[in-house]
Design brief:
Number of helices: 4
Distance between the termini: 66 Å
Order of helices and strands: HHHH
Length: about 120
């Protein structure tokens, strides 16, 4: 059986990743809210003409929050699949995963405040 070429394999991998991204956006309320916030913050960046460094920080914060939220969602889904019943150990894992989202969300909010508060004063 011939092996698939490296390029075809990479293209297929990108397709799976795009499918996952759209599944997240279509099915997960938390990602939908964060995506809405990302759009608002992006528009604010254009309105306030933030610097290149501020854009880098803002985009990094947005990507980090949404990426960690995606990982959190995957952890929750696999946990529910492995143990559909209420289990304290699974609950602990899910709480830790949600806590990671909280940490990056707080840091992203602080980055937003550092960027925008001086522009509003």
């Amino acid at each position: 059986m011939p092996r698939e070429s490296f390029l075809k394999n990479r293209i297929r991998s990108v397709g799976f990743a795009l499918k996952g991204m759209f599944l997240l956006l279509r099915t997960e309320a938390s990602i939908q809210i964060q995506f809405g916030i990302a759009i608002v913050m992006t528009l604010a960046g254009f309105y306030f003409q933030i610097s290149n460094t501020e854009w880098i920080l803002q985009l990094f914060a947005i990507g980090l929050v949404m990426g960690v939220e995606g990982i959190n969602t995957a952890i929750e889904k696999i946990s529910d699949y492995i143990q559909p019943k209420n289990d304290p150990k699974i609950g602990f894992i899910k709480d830790i995963s949600a806590g990671a989202v909280m940490i990056v969300s707080i840091v992203a909010s602080i980055i937003g405040l550092i960027i925008y508060v001086p522009k509003l004063l």
